[in-house]
Amino acid sequence: MIQLFHVSKYYDRRLALADVTLEIEKGEFVLLMGASGAGKSTLLKLLIGAERPEEGQILVQGRSLSKLRPSEIPVLRRKIGVVLQDFRLLPKKTVFDNVSLPLLVQGASTVEIRRKVTDALRSVGLDHKKDLFPPGLSTGEQQRICIARAIVNGPIMLLADEPTGNLDPELTSEIIELFKSINARGTTIIVATHDPNVLAQVNRRVIILDQGKVVSREQVCP
Ligand SMILES: Nc1ncnc2c1ncn2[C@@H]1O[C@H](COP(=O)(O)OP(=O)(O)OP(=O)(O)O)[C@@H](O)[C@H]1O
C-alpha cells in the first residue's frame, strides 16, 4: 500500500525526516509515535502529496508520488481520508453539509451524496444529528463528524494526525474503537500520536520516529 525508500525531507536546511525507509501493508493499522517535532506530521503530509521529499521515493499503491502530474494529486487525495486534531468543521453548515463537502467538490450527484453521507454518518453513529450545526455538538461528536467526512469517499487509507489530542480518555476510547471498526472493513489506518491512551488501546504495529529517523518499527502484538 505504502512504501518509502530513503526518504528525506528538509524545511529550508532543517532536516525533518532523515532517510526513512518503511512499508505499510494494505489493511494495517499503524501508530506513528515520537516526541513533538519528530517528523510525524511531515510524514503524513508527504503521503498525501502536500509536501515533497528532497530525497528518496514514496510509492502509494505502487505509484511513485514524484511522478504524479499536478492534476493527479487531487485524485490521490480522494483515496486518502484525513482527520486532524483541530476539527476544521464549518460552523455555519449542517453536519450533513460538512460531511458532503468532499463529494460536492468532486461534482457528485445529489442522490450519491445523500447515500454516501448517510452511510458515513451511520458508521460513526451520528446520522440522527445530520441537521444540527457543529457548535451544537460535543467535542467527541465533532471528531466523529470529521471521521465521517474523511471516510465519505470510501478511502483506501485513513491518516489521522493527533486525532485524540483534544479528547479525554473516555472519548479517546470511542474514537479508537471507531478507527478499529473502519480498519476491520479493510481501510488502512495510520494514526500519528503521542497519546499513551491510544498506544494502550491499539495493540498493533508502532513506528517510532526520533528527530526525523525511524528508530523502531515493532509489531507490538497482533
Ligand atoms: N512548514 C514548516 N516549516 C519549517 N519547519 C517545519 C515545518 N513543518 C515542520 N517543521 C519542522 O520539522 C520538524 C518535524 O515537524 P513535524 O510537525 O513533522 O513533527 P511532529 O512529530 O508532527 O510534531 P508534533 O507532534 O508537535 O506535531 C520540526 O523540527 C518542525 O519544527
Structural overview:
Pfam families: ABC_tran. Part of the ABC transporter FtsEX involved in cellular division. Important for assembly or stability of the septal ring. It comes from Nitrospira defluvii. It is a peripheral membrane protein. The protein has seven helices and ten strands. It is an alpha/beta fold and 222 residues long. It has a domain at 86-153. The protein has a six-stranded mixed beta sheet with strand order 6-7-8-3-9-10, with helices on both faces. A four-stranded antiparallel beta sheet has the order 2-1-4-5, covered by helices on one side. The longest helix is centred in the last third of the chain and has 16 residues, at 169-184. The model has no long low-confidence stretch (mean pLDDT 92). The structure holds adenosine-5'-triphosphate.
